[in-house]
Specification:
The complex is a heterodimer. Chain A is mainly alpha-helical. Chain A is 72% helix and 0% strand. The longest helix of chain A has 25 residues, at 99-123. The chains are: A mainly alpha, B alpha+beta.
């Protein structure tokens, strides 16, 4: 078991990397399918270290994302808090699932997050898409989940943190 | 908490977090910067010569236009003075660079590398070499967010340069790259190919900057308004350099305009207008 400081800094680093991936400019068409990187990292840490990463941390990270993207304060914070809460409720089951089963649950969780964001955008009259394509990031996130799981798991194992 | 934001109670937190966000934006911009520096390093000599020749030619053409524009603007100012009209063609600009775009595909916004430290203020107009780009909506110490004219929640007051017909250009809901002209009655004279310029109404954008070109007009009987689409002149995706108009909404602006109406020796009118 490694030191908690190392684990904390790894958690912080992965969140920073995810936030960077969330704002790196990509081509126009790819914007609609950009995976919810921050949510992926959040779900991983909530499943593996719920004593460190919970709804509160999710909220703080969400505020950071809001500041980075210049969106309404609290928008992503609320969305990520919802993701953290749902993952916490399903944590014990998720730990027993295979990666593919986890991915299908993640599809639903991130879909719910996007739905919440869409509702908030309607409520506050923010610009939004007219079609169902706003759910596309849930699909791409679920597809990338096995990769994220392996990558983050490998990272944690190589540092002897699991 | 979100409701707080609507009434502006979170402004200080936003400023502080804006400072914290600056290194992130710098990092996220790194691939683009490296890409452009690679372009600078790995470049063909023949390409350079060719580009140089092309730029020389462009410079020559622009000089010639500028000469013409200068005499025209002098004449224009004299005529305006005769009419007692208040319009000033000269405007100072502050160059800035685009360092990020909004990751939200539905809101058309860009981040520029100038903030309140450089005197940027909310509502400031942003131009590009080919036309109007948008306005500053959120100022942080080192960067600011600019709402583009193609955003669905943004409306630009425009007029047709040919005949002065006025209209409101709203960012298209469906495609993020076009403008819809709103509330144009079918009898108004607008045709495909007409250039739309900013009308200066709304007091945010300076007058007479090119905004867009009309690409389709359809008038269907039974509809109260004509359906007109326009394509913005500004190259949103291919440019990195933008200009902030310095004094359009300055309180001293009106006074300066009034002064200028009486002055005739405006021979040094090197305005960004004529560069267009």
């Amino acid at each position: 078991m490694a030191s908690p400081a190392l684990l904390n800094s790894l958690i912080a680093l992965t969140f920073i990397a995810a936030a960077l991936l969330a704002i790196v400019p990509v081509p126009e068409w790819a914007l609609y399918y950009r995976p919810e990187w921050v949510a992926l990292v959040l779900v991983y840490w909530v499943i593996n270290h719920p004593e460190r990463v919970g709804v509160g941390v999710a909220w703080l990270v969400g505020i950071m994302v809001d500041a980075l993207t210049g969106s309404l304060f609290g928008l992503h914070a609320l969305g990520l808090a919802l993701v953290a809460y749902l993952t916490l409720r399903l944590r014990l089951r998720l730990r027993l699932y295979t990666v593919l089963q986890q991915a299908s649950v993640l599809l639903v969780i991130i879909g719910l997050q996007l739905l919440l964001l869409q509702w908030l955008q309607i409520l506050f009259d923010l610009p939004r898409g007219a079609s169902m394509i706003y759910l596309a990031p849930a699909m791409s996130s679920a597809l990338l989940w096995p990769l994220a799981w392996l990558l983050l798991g490998g990272l944690a194992r190589s540092l002897d943190l699991n | 908490m979100i409701a707080d934001q609507r009434f502006g109670y979170m402004e200080h937190a936003r400023q502080a977090l804006g400072v914290a966000a600056a290194p992130f934006h710098w990092l996220a911009d790194t691939p683009a910067r490296i890409g452009s520096s690679f372009n600078d390093i790995f470049v063909n000599r023949a390409d350079l010569i060719e580009e140089n020749a092309r730029l020389r030619e462009e410079l020559l053409l622009s000089r010639q236009r500028l000469l013409l524009a200068e005499s025209l603007s002098v004449e224009n100012n004299r005529l305006l003075a005769l009419q007692n009209a208040s319009a000033l063609l000269e405007q100072e600009v502050l160059p800035a660079e685009i360092i990020n775009v909004s990751p939200d595909p539905y809101s058309r916004r860009i981040l520029i590398n100038k903030g309140s430290r450089d005197g940027v203020f909310e509502g400031q107009a942003v131009l590009e070499a080919n036309g109007l780009m948008g306005q500053v909506v959120q100022v942080m110490p080192f960067a600011s967010w600019v709402l583009l004219i193609t955003d669905a929640n943004h409306v630009t007051p425009v007029e047709v340069s040919r005949n002065g017909e006025r209209a409101l250009a709203r960012g298209s809901q469906r495609s993020g790259t076009e403008l819809d002209l709103e509330f144009v009655i079918p009898t108004q004279d607008m045709e495909v190919g007409d250039t739309l310029i900013s009308s200066g109404m709304g007091l945010i954008y300076p007058k007479n900057y090119p905004v867009a070109e009309i690409i389709s007009v359809s008038r269907s009987p039974g509809q109260p308004y004509a359906n007109i689409k326009a394509r913005p002149k500004a190259q949103f995706s291919s440019t990195r350099h933008v200009m902030l108009v310095l004094d359009a909404t300055n309180p001293d602006y009106a006074a300066a305009v009034n002064d200028a109406a009486g002055i005739e020796e405006e021979s040094s009118l090197v305005s960004v207008n004529s560069a267009n």
